[in-house]
Amino acid sequence: MAGLESIPLEIYEAAEVDGASRRAKFFSIMLPLLKPAIFVALMFRTADAFKAFDTILMITRGGPAGSTEMLTLWIYKVAFSHLELGTTSAASYILMLILLPPVLILTRLLTGKEGLSALLRR
User: Fold this and answer.
1) Is residue 41 part of a domain?
2) Is residue 102 part of a domain?
3) Rounded to an integer, what distance in angstroms lies between the CA atom of residue 7 and that of residue 91?
4) Domain count, the chain
5) 66: in domain
6) How many CB atoms lie within 10 A of CB 116?
7) What's the whole-model pTM score?
8) Which has more pLDDT, 68 or 79?
9) Burial 19-45 (b: 16+ CB within 10 A, else e)
10) Which domain, by its residues, includes 97?
11) 115 located within any domain
């Protein structure tokens, strides 16, 4: 909502004067100006999908029989119950490698070929 409110009304008025349709206003004005907000929201939602750790830990502790255990909960159990820090480190690195492609894809789709630096310059 904040992203929508940050778009100046003068831009829409100028588009109306030029005879732009609603579809043209959406694809030419609204969507490009909302890309940074959409990017941040998608990044947070992607991270939240892998951050269900605390909820699962408090409600089920990964049970029954490990049916609700996620990679993050397994890493926690291995680190603090079994004290296998090497295994934990390797699993955390694998989790990072799992999360990296979606982040790079989202970054490329929403910022174009310039990448994340173009988004941060805006």
Assistant:
1) no
2) yes
3) 43
4) 1
5) yes
6) 15
7) 0.54
8) 79
9) ebeeeebeeebbeebbbbeebeebeee
10) 51-121
11) yes
